[in-house]
Amino acid sequence: MGLPINDSIPRVPEPHSELTIEDEKLYSDLYIRTSWFDAALALDQIEKGKADGRRTSIYLRHLFQSHFFKIGRSIDKHAGIIIFMAALILGTFCVGLKSVIIHSNVNQLWLEVGGSLEQELAYTDKYLGYIDTSTNNQLLIQTLKNEDATILYDQALLSHLKVVKQALGVEVFIGEVTWTLKDLCQLPSSPRFDEHFMEQILEIVIPCAIITPLDCFWEGSKLLGPDRDPHIPMINEKYGTISWQSLDPARLLEDASKSFHTEDKSSKSDQGMIAKVEQYMKQAGITTGYIKKPCLNPFDPQCPASSPNKRSRQTPDIGAALSGGCYGYAMNFMHWPEELIVGGAEKNATNHIKKAKALQTVIQLMSEQELYDHWHDNYKTHYAGWSLKKAKEVLNAWQEKFSNEVRKIMREEGNTTYSAYDFNAFSSTTLNNSLRAHSKPDFLHLSICVIIIMVYTGLVLYRFGDPVNGQSGVGMFGILLLCASTAAGLGVCSLLGLAFNVSTTQVVPLIALGLAVDQIFILTHGYDSRRNSNEQMHTAQIMKKYGLSVLFNGASTASAFLGAALLPIPILRTFALQATILITVNLFAILFVFPAFITLDLRRRRSSHMDIFCCLPTFTKVHHPIETVNNDSLLNKPKKCQKLTIKLYIDLILNGKMKALGIFTILVIFVCSTYATIKLQDGFELTDLIPKNTSEHNFISAQSNLFGFYNIYAVTQGNFEYPQNQKLLREYHEAFIRVPYIIKNDNGGLPDFWLNQFRDWLKNLQNAFDRDYKSGAISKERWYANASADGILAFKLLAQTGHVDNPIDKSLITHNRLVNSDGIINPKAFYNYLSAWAWNDAAYGASQSNLRPSPRMWIHSPKDKHMEIPKSAPLSYTQLPFYLHGLYTTKDIKNVIEEIRELCTKFNARGLPNYPSGIPFLYWAQYFNLHVLIGLALAGSILVTFVLSIIFLQSVSASILVILNAIFVFAQLFGVMLVLDVKLSAIAAVILIASIGLSICFTANITLGFLTSIGNRERRLRLALEHTIPYILHSITTSILILLILYFSPFEFIVKHFFYLLISFWLVCAVNSLFHFPMLLLLFGMRPELVPYQHQNRISTPSPQLKSINSSKSSGKAITLHNKRTCRKKSHHCHVKNTNLNNEQSLTTITEEPSWQSSASSLSNASGYISDGNKSNRNFTRVHNNTKQDNSNTANVNSINIDAATAAAQQAFKSIIVQPEVTVETHHNGNQQNTKVTATANIKLEFTTGGSGSGSDSDVKKENC
């Protein structure tokens, strides 16, 4: 009679206790993580009434497991073919890398697409051929190396002069033509003459438009030339060589006028020509040139005597001279604002500059379209194959050579003149060239990254005490596989037409590789256990257990990056799409190719070859079967140090004080994150987009920090009647006076724009006509010889009707006014007048109006009796120029943009189609929809991730907890950004959006372990952490190691956002996943999927899965071992040793017991339980005391009365261990073969009662003759 069961004895051994073989098996995944290990068995437990649970969830998990099991079994059978086909497919996709297109133009990368800005840019490009006028210029900034000093002293400006003058002298030879600055620069408008030689003289004398602080001094004239001496009759004899350094234009014109008047041979046309030049100079404000400006170096021999400090020899007050800006030689058209040429200025009480930190010079160049049009019909380009592409090539070559010349000057050894200064040149050409050079893949950094990860993987997976069972080789082959799949993914991107950029070459491959390496550690961790004796099915079992986890991780990260594709910035959208594609390709490689490597690694193990050095000979020992089991169980344990560390850490966080600390820190972090979310400011630095340690980066840094100056335009469009809506257009211009940061003129108003200048020109003509008409020089029908040139031009304009079929009506001369009393230009002849103004007034070129279509050419000549003036086409594009100053922060820029946009919207509603243009509107436009786009992308990412979590976890409540935790991580990133001084921008938004999908990869796997484990919350949390901590630590470590390469990127946005922010994100994920999230599970953790009735911490011992084989039916059929056909029952003999026959015909059957230890078959299955996932363990064979073996050659084992033992064991603990071994020996003798089958079973039964134990050992050996 048995003794009662002692309930005080623990049913499942604690993890820290010494485990026997039987205890360890009961602590295996089959017993304590049943639904994760085999959902079919968990479902069977529910159906048999042994457990309660969520039947639907377990059934769906069973379906996933069955499919992954089938995939794993197919991979196991065709491992070699899969690897070969994968190599072909990946190699084919890699061919796509030959057709890569790299975008390095800053506008292609950073300008918002898909919105109103893209439409505005397309409209500008349609009419101008470029998107921003300011990008055509060549700029140069001079700064001090000593930031505390001032640049306002003579030597600094003289050094500025030397550098600019030397750089301006560069020439390029393209198309068999030598190109200089004079060929490329923008020239102020000059009057047209019938006499061609006069136009040639003016072309030589009139210099390029150069905006420079040197124009406040006489030294500014040294930049103007002319390069060659013009031949001017009667002038060269008196003045010698014409040069702006000594030129007094007003006096020169006066002497020329006197000479022509005294010459008897001078004609009226010559006098008219002189009068026209005089009128032009008066209108432009050309007077004494530079000779009355102070000299920076009054000791210069060329310094004119008329200079105010020539006699005193005193250095001028540079700050006072620069205050208010500088004027060029044409004072009415060339006023350079102080804010444009002086940076970092500090002023005194009288608003005079007393200190400054930078000087800027701007060389105004033509755009490629303007350059092409200018030289299109010129003899210089007739044989050069002139085209728009050639014009662009010329401009790019000159700007590149200019920048190189500046760098060359600064590199000159022994030159102390520039040792205290930094000169940095900038142009859109050099910027794009720099981006192109730094956008190329850095194969050295990529190679170092791969080597580091391979070394880390090899060290982590290598077993120094057991080289045969190590996993270094398969891990390192997995890294190489991911490198190949990453390259193939990039090839797919190229084939899909996604252009590459700096993020593609420097960031995307590393992120994709780091996320994929994580999955390698999941799968290698999955077969680190070798307790399953059926190794041929091991790959299928790994896929069954871990396939869904790998798929979920890949899908969640891919969807996270896909959500970031909503951002309208091209480089970020391309980054998101390419990252999604690479993650997807890597996911397929991990799911379908890497398991084939696992299969080959398992075969290596069975053949006892060493890890990595598998070709070296090895020596193996043959162990007794029971000893082998002990060996395997020992090898399956984690390294002692790692296991002890994990156990101590889990004990620590489950301590009561640590729980309280964890909850407290969660609340504190939540409050701080909320505060950071509110306080975090929008921010965008242009320097982040430009490679560090380049002239372009230094220039943008100085320009942004010291100048804060931007040139903007208000653009008016077509489909608008300009002649009839002149008043509305003027109101539009005047409205900008209320916009903050706009530079006003000396009177506190805005500079005139083209319509006002057009009107003033017509008023002057009207006044000239009125004077001539009053004096009788002009009548109703004609003009006379004494009429002025302006009066004659006004006569022609007044006669214009504006009708093409009847263009002239002289009766209108006395009735019409060019401009009425309200300042409105005659609407009927508006476009006729426009043709005359554009080609006969110097103010047109200075207006920066860029009227499109360009006004038709018509040059007035008083001798021309032809009255008709061609009518220009209706305007479709005009510009109103403005200057912004003092914009140093994103907040200020954003406020100005918002106010200007509101103003434009207001006038759009009034019928004036318009929009603003300029650098602020190009690169800061992202902020106006950024928060909305982040919200939409975040909502989409949360929704997709939530659906994936439900599929993965099969629990809505668990998915909600995981998503809430992901949002918590998202909020913490705002705090991290605040600490790192990373402001919110579209770049940071990518990481924020992707953080949702990336963070749940860890917490979802912890939650899965928590749901599928058996026991109370604390025990299930302990089991979940023990299972996932190694994978999480390896994943975070490899990700950080890969990201370290990004620290060396030359782009600040990569270092700031992808290095600092991503590493901070992984650290936040580590702390959150391993500390904070477990606390949430302890507080709000949901019920497990399976709750056993009989045992608290494990399921009831399952019966062996046996196949009932009828001897009569099986006669003559082949016996199948491990899915392999081995022999036929009667006529063949095979030799198979150490073969587990759990799934084959049983030598004896054992009664299923409800006790905590059962048959050896069950115990064996505890570690190596194999199910294809399609069959539930529903039909378990009951005990037969007298099982018969076919041919009566099986020994009788009924001497052990199992029924009696079973009845007695109802009151006692018992252990039954069955260790079957089958030996099949086949002998060939000619055409005959003899087979000998030997079956051996070691059965050990242990009974324990009330402090005493009894044991009985029985060995039964059966042999077939």
From TrEMBL:
Any one Pfam family match given in the protein's UniProt record, by short name: Sterol-sensing
Region (Disordered): 1167-1194
SSD domain mapped to chain residues: 442-600
GO molecular function, one term: smoothened binding
Composition-biased stretches (Polar residues): 1173-1194
Segments traversing the membrane: 79-101, 443-462, 474-500, 506-527, 548-569, 575-600, 660-678, 930-953, 960-980, 986-1011, 1031-1051, 1057-1084
Cellular component annotations (GO), alphabetically ordered: plasma membrane
Chief localization: membrane
Compartmental location: Membrane
The organism's place on the tree of life at top rank: Eukaryota
Record's protein name: SSD domain-containing protein
